[in-house]
Each structure stands twice: as structure tokens, then as C-alpha cells.
Design a protein that fits this description.
The chain is mainly β. The protein has one helix and 44 strands. The strands form three sheets. It has a 16-stranded parallel β-sheet, with helices on one face. The chain has a 14-stranded parallel β-sheet with strand order 3-6-9-12-15-18-21-24-27-30-33-36-39-42, with no helix packed on it. Helix 1 links the parallel strand 1 and strand 2. The longest helix has 11 residues. The radius of gyration is 25 Å and the shape is elongated. The termini are far apart.
């Protein structure tokens, strides 16, 4: 028999735990109780909503108050034991916070979307909610033991919303993106995103920053996405230093003035075995790829076109299916980049493209070391040897090698 809901002294000046389902039948009822106590917290007041192991079938939970003295905790040793199943139809979310609301923390739970996900890359109409959504200046902290599955967005921050993720948050089988910042911000360092896809719309990204949104995805991992592991567009920006992207269409992708900063700092940022390009910049996108690796990608290592820019300072492009580096009406710049053992050319610059870098090296590629066609290249001290079709092929290009 469920116990009588607890009362709270005035003011509540100590830590208190509310157990689900012992003290309250549902998370929603416990949050209603917490909301009534917010103005009565003393300096030491804090409420933990503790969810017992089990499966819970829920509708969207909107947290409609703000307090950094309330948290929702499941099983932080094994989040698979606390399964929260949410109806995701009609664009509903799991946990929704908007208009400046939010709580301190959510941790130790697995958040599952139901009915919207209809199989890999297949989604019901109007099922575009998020496992955790912060809107309009709302905020929340997600603990390291949060798992989110089969919501169209895993973690989303929009219009000034902010989500901070402790290292270890994992999103799988989202639609558009696992972590999505649209004019909002997400701190998602050391987090992971896998298997995101919406096939009919050509979507599926691990981490996506759009329309002025910002994500810190340093040391994070993105794999098996339909489009790209890390993606910035329309003035969105992302840090993804020391990260890795594998088995995506493109590892790192920036378009429409989006900016990815994925320089290697303490370990190598690595785009490998993607079925497109390791690093892809288009239509004014910018990628900073100092000391980054682009290896064993099917189409090529680094690719820029249509006024895009990639900083390839001391980057490595090895064993790719196409060229190591390509710029078509775009710019590659940076010293010390290397292209080795690619199935195509080492460097391809064409159609008003621009290459600016010293000490570039092309070695052992199946094409030519430097393929320069109607472009400009400032490449003092460039080296190229053992390329199957020679060191350099030049056509109507301005080239400076000394």
C-alpha cells in the first residue's frame, strides 16, 4: 500500500528523499509536490526524487518551475534498471523544460521514445521531440548515467536553452541528431552518439550545432550515423577537439558558415573508415583541423568546395579511397600537411581553389602528388615522391614552390 505523501517543514532546511513509487505513484506527482516547496527551501534544503528499479510508462513530463535544489535520480550504478518509456507521438518529449525552468540534475535513467521510431531511419510524422529538451533559457544537468534511445533528438537545447552533460551520456537511434543545439548550448564532453538516421529526409548526425547554437563535444565519439558524426551549419559552432568519428557518411561536416573546431590537443582527432569524406566543408563552412587524422575514408580525407575553408596544419590523410586533400573553389591552408598511400591524388586543387602551406608532403599515392587545375597554390618546400603518376600535374595554375 502506498504511503501517505510526506509533508515538508517550513522552511525545509535539510536533504530529503522522495521515493517513486513508495511515496508518490509517479515522477509527475513528486514534481508537483516539489514545486509547492520551492519558495520554502532554507539554505540547506534539497529534495531528491529517487526512482526505484523498474519499467515506467509515461507521457511527457514538463518541469514547470526552476530550482537547483531538486534532482531526479534512478540507478546510478546501472541505468538499464530504470527504464522510462515515453509516448513520443505528437512531438512530445521525455523531459521538457521551457520559459526559464529547470532542475539541478537527472541521472541514472534510460529514457526511451515509443511509437515515433518505426525502425532504423524510419519515423512517424510529428514525432520530433527530444528525450531531454531545454527551451527559452531553461537549463538542466544530465549525469553520466543517462541513456537516451529512439527519440528524434536525444538531448536538445533551443532558443537560449542550456544542457550540461557529465562525461558518459549516451544517445542511440535518434532521428535528426543525438545532441542538438539550435540557438542554444550543450556541454557534451566525453559523450557518445550512435546510429542516428532519418532516411527519407537525409538526416542523421551525432552532434549538431545550428543557427547560432554551440556544442562543446571535446573528446566525444560519433559512429554509424546516416550523414555525419559532427555537424555545424548556419552559423552554428562546435568544439570537438580530440574526438573521433567512424562509419558515418562524413566524419566532420560544416556548411553554410558553420564552424567546427576539431584541432588535436592531447590526442589525435580522428575521422576514419567513413563512407564519404573524413572532413567535408561546403558553402562557406569552416573546419579547423590542426594535427587531425583523416584515414581510410572511402571518398577522401579532407574535402572543401564552394568558398569553404579547412585548416590542414600538420594534418594527415592516409589510405583513403580518393584524394588525400581536395579544394574546389575553396581554400586549404596550413603548413606540414601530409598525404600518403591514398588511392587517388595526394592534393587536388581546382576551379579557382587555393592552397596555402609550406612543407606539404605527398608520398606513395596512386595518382599524382599535387594535381593543380586552374587554381593558385603557394606551397614552398613541398615534397612529393613515389606517387604513381608523378610529383605534380599543373594546368593553367599559378604555383609558387620556393
Amino acid at each position: 500500500m502506498m504511503g501517505k505523501p510526506p509533508t515538508v517543514e517550513t522552511p525545509l532546511n535539510h536533504w530529503r528523499q522522495l521515493q517513486i513509487p513508495h511515496d508518490f505513484a509517479s515522477i509527475h506527482e513528486a514534481l508537483v509536490f516539489c514545486k509547492a516547496q520551492v519558495l520554502q527551501f532554507g539554505q540547506q534544503g534539497f529534495i531528491q526524487i529517487k526512482i526505484a528499479d523498474g519499467d515506467y510508462y509515461l507521457d511527457q513530463i514538463e518541469i514547470d518551475f526552476f530550482s537547483d535544489r531538486v534532482e531526479i535520480i534512478g540507478n546510478v550504478n546501472n541505468p538499464d534498471r530504470v527504464q522510462l518509456h515515453f509516448n513520443a507521438l505528437n512531438n512530445r518529449c521525455g523531459f521538457l523544460m521551457q520559459r526559464g525552468n529547470g532542475i539541478f540534475k537527472i541521472d541514472g535513467v534510460t529514457i526511451n521514445g515509443m511509437l515515433g521510431f518505426q525502425g532504423y531511419g524510419q519515423w512517424a510524422d510529428e514525432s520530433y521531440g527530444a528525450g531531454v529538451m531545454c527551451l527559452h533559457n531553461s537549463q538542466v544537468l544530465l549525469g553520466s548515467q543517462v541513456r537516451i534511445n529512439r527519440f528524434y533528438y536525444g538531448v536538445a537545447a533551443r532558443y537560449g536553452g542550456s544542457v550540461r552533460c557529465e562525461p558518459g551520456v549516451i544517445v542511440q537511434f535518434a532521428g535528426d541528431a543525438g545532441f542538438f543545439a539550435y540557438a542554444g548550448s550543450i556541454d557534451a564532453q566525453h559523450c557518445e552518439a550512435y546510429h542516428c538516421a532519418h532516411l527519407s529526409d537525409g538526416l542523421g548526425f551525432g552532434f549538431c550545432a545550428e543557427s547560432g547554437g554551440f556544442i562543446n563535444a571535446d573528446n566525444s565519439r560519433a559512429a554509424h550515423h546516416h550523414m555525419a558524426g559532427f555537424y555545424a551549419l548556419t552559423n552554428g559552432a562546435m568544439w570537438c577537439h580530440d574526438s573521433s568519428a567512424t562509419d558515418n557518411r562524413h566524419g566532420y561536416m560544416a556548411i553554410h558558415s558553420g564552424v567546427l573546431t576539431c584541432n588535436s590537443i592531447n590526442q589525435s582527432t580522428n575521422a576514419y573508415q567513413n563512407f564519404g569524406y573524413g572532413y567535408f566543408a561546403d558553402n562557406g563552412g569552416h573546419i579547423l583541423a590542426n594535427r587531425c587524422l583523416g584515414n581510410e575514408n572511402s571518398q577522401g580525407g579532407f574535402f572543401a568546395r564552394h568558398y569553404a575553408t579547412i585548416d590542414i596544419t600538420h594534418a594527415h590523410a592516409n589510405h583513403n579511397g580518393g584524394a588525400g586533400y581536395t579544394a574546389i573553389n575553396a581554400t586549404l591552408f596550413g603548413n606540414g600537411a601530409q598525404a600518403r598511400f591514398n588511392q587517388g591524388d595526394g592534393f587536388v586543387i581546382g576551379q579557382a581553389g587555393f592552397l596555402d602551406g609550406e612543407f606539404l608532403m605527398a608520398y606513395g599515392n596512386q595518382g599524382v602528388g599535387f594535381n593543380l587545375n586552374q587554381c593558385q597554390a603557394f606551397m614552398p618546400r613541398a615534397r612529393g615522391w613515389k606517387n604513381s603518376q608523378g610529383r605534380m600535374q599543373k594546368n593553367r595554375s599559378w604555383v609558387a614552390t620556393r
